[in-house]
């Protein structure tokens, strides 16, 4: 066990855990940030996507010891009031069925749109195809990313 | 567990779950509606005008938590903006059928929900009439307001909630004319959208309790194994581990975090012994071919003289179709919380059958059901998997053994290899055509592995063929199976609709015309009982043909499929286009008759999602076994459909004003057939086995 100091959503946290504990489980089991979801544990589904210094990463395969001073953003910290353009677009397009994968989808989309504010449909599909949605809300995810892109400007 | 959270540089020690800013996973309807007047088990109205509507059925992504309250609000004439919806906990005294399964919630509760809303509206109107001294019949309602036009008197529902709550509810209540619905039929957004998009705790896996322990369980690694011995010394010595306990054939590692338990499980030394045949997929193929010819069949339906029909046939068409086992793969793996105390049990978690979880807990603990509470969380998908209570049973066992609140968590590998799969089935279809190419005989034999009855003997084409025999053979296996979204029909519909296409082609008839002719026959001179509505089936076929411009699109290869399941009718046209020499699935056009559409937005997505699920599993879903152990254990080996693989899905609803039927399942069954038949048009090769990806004809297809 070791004490890890983490910067998450612009707050300082610390957790006394083994260094190989994936960031996902530190967020969930130790810090009460349960918005980041466990889906596969092997970086195949994207449900656990968070931002590390603004880039989308899979927290289920990221040992807490490797986070260092990087700034972590989770779905809880994507916006103060839940009004990030991607979050608003997700509501407007009524994307969610069960909703379990959507935090990961939103975090992936938000990081993608920061890099590519005016994406083509092909680029959206390319960026979002790493995230699984078992309910099959892909049409609406694609649509919501488009809607969010119009809100970002 | 030493945990610290710090804000603004200062360090707080002893982070605790009850201090968490996060909202609780399960909310208490009574607390939400505190100070409100309770009109019935579904709804309360507060003097501040807010309305709380309880949705008793488990929400697994089918949209019930939005749709149920919409129905109540419609009859109440409530202002939807003032409605708070709450997931009800298990309460058998107040609610019936708190189950999510069989697409049955809406047909079961449609009248009940309408009456709940209409009764409250009636009482509000009568309270206002008494106060205003006007006839109740002259009072109108809209948007949570009462209005007496002649006198100009008006009031909000909140103002009369208390007075109305004191009146006696009528036993017979008049419901609205369905043509006057204002909320039903609109697009209403998922009531949990904001919580979902901001990461609020909603799901079973998000439920934490101060002092709660975690449990990761090692179940037998092969179907057919039983536990022989456990050496847990090394696991117990691992950091964070509180105990290792054994029950039935399972070994539970109990500790202070998920990760610690998962790591400790890896050092368990367990010996198993064989308790049943350890089957491999090659065994299953052998079993299928043996039982297809030699199995002892149970007759499911028989009309006319099928042997005579085949003897007199001018042409006989015969084909076999096979599907593999499938895991459900809800994205939230199985998990459940239990706290077994001396005087009762608290259960919390994602279950499609809370009552079953309670019943099992009662059996294990010996406590009466009334001492057991079940809170239902939002569920990260179900697809039938959460109809079982195995995970709840595990949580109860472990909590009882360690005498502490425990949450059992399944890893993805546990979830995928843990059983209760869609059963593997093989079908043999035979059709007899006379010299005029009329279908005079039809035979279907289904061989299933733990499938129960792998046929749906009364579905189309039954009723339309004079001489028909449907039977089935069962093989008992140690591999556990269970209902999987649209049980049996999730594969049967594809096989049957593909075969009907083969028969239509052999008869030299257009696939749509061929199906319509059979249905006309079922209507005019039915062969035995017809248990589906022929006219509704014809209507969706015609709508799908019309909307897809059937047979008239140049360069587009269309395939047709239609199915009746869970009381709803869905026809689909698949469209394949050849691009750079390769066929690609571009579109699915769906025509749906589920009666009145309650929530347009939810229903549209339910159909699209069902189609995506159906074609995804038809194309890629495969689970194989070696020595009783599944070869696939996670999404790297088991392929789920992704965004870059979906066709466009165009959905059309039949507007016929009939009381609503289910929609969680009916869009899935026809999808595979529409795709396979369209690929056939493009390639002249039949896809007779799922997954399509392993078929020779499908190789190299985008």
UniProtKB/TrEMBL annotation, chain A:
Family matches, as InterPro entries: 2Fe-2S-bd, 2Fe-2S-bd_dom_sf, 2Fe-2S_ferredoxin-like_sf, 2Fe-2S_ferredoxin-type, 2Fe2S_fd_BS, Beta-grasp_dom_sf, Diverse_Oxidoreductases
Domain 2Fe-2S ferredoxin-type, chain residue ranges per copy: 2-78
Gene3D superfamilies: 3.10.20.30, [2Fe-2S]-binding domain
Protein keywords: 2Fe-2S, Iron, Iron-sulfur, Metal-binding, Oxidoreductase
CDD domains in the record: fer2 (cd00207)
Keyword check for Hydrolase: no
Descriptive protein name: Isoquinoline 1-oxidoreductase subunit alpha
Lineage: Bacteria, Pseudomonadati, Bacteroidota, Cytophagia, Cytophagales
């Amino acid at each position: 066990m070791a004490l890890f100091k983490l910067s998450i959503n612009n707050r300082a946290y610390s957790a006394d855990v083994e260094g190989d504990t994936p960031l996902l489980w530190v967020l969930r089991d130790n810090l009460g940030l349960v918005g980041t979801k466990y889906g596969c544990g092997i970086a195949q589904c994207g449900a656990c996507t968070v931002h590390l210094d603004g880039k989308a990463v899979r927290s289920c395969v990221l040992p807490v010891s490797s986070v260092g001073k990087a700034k972590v953003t989770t779905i809880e910290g994507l916006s103060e009031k839940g009004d990030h353009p991607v979050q608003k677009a997700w509501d407007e397009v009524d994307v969610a069925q069960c909703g379990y994968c959507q935090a990961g989808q939103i975090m992936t989309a938000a990081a993608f749109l920061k890099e590519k504010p005016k994406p083509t449909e092909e680029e959206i599909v390319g960026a979002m195809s790493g995230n699984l949605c078992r309910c099959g809300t892909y049409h609406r995810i694609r649509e919501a990313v488009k809607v969010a892109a119009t809100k970002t400007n | 567990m030493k945990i610290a959270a710090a804000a603004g540089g200062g360090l707080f020690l002893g982070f605790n779950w009850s201090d968490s800013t996060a909202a609780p996973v399960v909310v208490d309807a009574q607390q939400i509606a505190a100070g409100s007047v309770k009109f019935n088990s579904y709804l309360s109205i507060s003097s501040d005008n807010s309305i709380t509507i309880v949705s008793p059925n488990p929400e697994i992504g089918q949209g019930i938590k939005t749709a149920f309250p919409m129905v109540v609000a419609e009859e109440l004439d409530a202002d939807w903006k003032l409605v708070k919806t709450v997931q009800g906990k298990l309460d058998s005294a107040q609610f019936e059928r708190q189950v999510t399964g069989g697409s049955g919630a809406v047909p079961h509760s449609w009248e009940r929900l309408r009456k709940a809303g209409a009764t409250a509206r009636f009482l509000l109107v009568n309270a206002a009439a008494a106060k205003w001294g006007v006839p109740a019949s002259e009072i109108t309602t809209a948007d949570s307001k009462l209005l007496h036009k002649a006198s100009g008197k008006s009031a909000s529902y909140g103002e009369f909630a208390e007075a109305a709550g004191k009146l006696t509810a009528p036993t017979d209540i008049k419901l609205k004319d369905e043509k006057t619905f204002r909320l039903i039929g609109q697009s209403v957004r998922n009531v949990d959208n904001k919580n979902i998009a901001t990461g609020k705790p909603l799901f079973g896996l998000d439920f934490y309790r101060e002092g709660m322990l975690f449990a990761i369980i090692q179940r037998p690694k092969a179907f057919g194994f039983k536990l022989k011995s456990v050496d847990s010394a090394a696991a117990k010595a691992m950091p964070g581990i509180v105990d290792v306990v054994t029950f039935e054939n399972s070994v539970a590692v109990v500790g202070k975090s998920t990760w610690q338990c998962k790591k400790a499980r890896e050092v368990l030394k367990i010996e198993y012994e064989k308790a049943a045949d350890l089957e491999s997929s090659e065994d299953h193929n052998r079993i299928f071919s043996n039982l297809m010819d030699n199995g002892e069949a149970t007759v499911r339906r028989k009309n006319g003289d099928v042997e005579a029909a085949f003897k007199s046939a001018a042409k006989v068409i015969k084909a076999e179709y096979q599907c593999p086992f499938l895991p459900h793969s809800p994205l939230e793996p199985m998990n459940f919380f239990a706290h077994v105390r001396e005087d009762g049990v608290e259960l919390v978690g994602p279950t499609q059958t809370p009552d079953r979880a309670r019943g099992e807990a009662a059996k294990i603990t010996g406590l009466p059901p009334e001492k057991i509470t079940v809170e239902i969380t939002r569920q990260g998908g179900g697809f039938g998997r959460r109809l079982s209570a195995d995970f709840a049973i595990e949580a109860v066992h472990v909590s009882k053994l360690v005498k502490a609140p425990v949450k059992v968590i399944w890893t993805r590998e546990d979830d995928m290899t843990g059983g209760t799969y869609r059963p593997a089935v093989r079908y043999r279809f035979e059709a007899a055509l006379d010299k005029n190419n009329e279908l005079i005989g039809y035979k279907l034999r289904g061989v299933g592995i733990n499938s129960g009855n792998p046929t749906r003997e009364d579905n189309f084409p039954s009723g339309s063929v004079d001489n028909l025999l449907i039977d089935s053979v069962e093989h008992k296996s140690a591999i556990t199976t269970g209902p999987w979204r649209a049980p049996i029909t999730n594969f049967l519909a594809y096989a049957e609709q593909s075969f009907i296409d083969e028969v239509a082609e052999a008869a030299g008839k257009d696939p749509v015309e061929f199906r319509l002719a059979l249905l006309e026959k079922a209507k005019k001179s039915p062969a035995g009982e017809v248990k589906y509505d022929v006219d509704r089936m014809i209507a969706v076929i015609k709508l799908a043909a019309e909307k897809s411009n059937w047979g008239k699109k140049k360069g587009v290869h269309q395939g047709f499929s239609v199915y009746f399941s869970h009381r709803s009718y869905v026809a689909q046209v698949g469209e394949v286009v050849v691009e750079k020499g390769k066929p690609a699935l571009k579109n699915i056009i769906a025509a749906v008759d589920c009666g009145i559409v309650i929530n347009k937005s939810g229903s549209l997505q339910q159909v699209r999602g069902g189609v995506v699920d159906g074609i995804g599993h038809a194309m890629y879903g495969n689970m194989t076994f070696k020595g009783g152990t599944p070869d696939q254990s996670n999404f790297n080996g088991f392929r789920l459909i992704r965004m870059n693989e979906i066709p466009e899905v165009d959905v059309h609803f039949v507007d016929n004003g009939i009381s609503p039927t289910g929609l969680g399942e009916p869009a899935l069954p026809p999808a595979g057939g529409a795709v396979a038949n369209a690929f056939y048009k493009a390639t002249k090769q039949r896809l007779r086995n799922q997954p399509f990806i392993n078929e020779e004809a499908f190789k190299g297809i985008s």
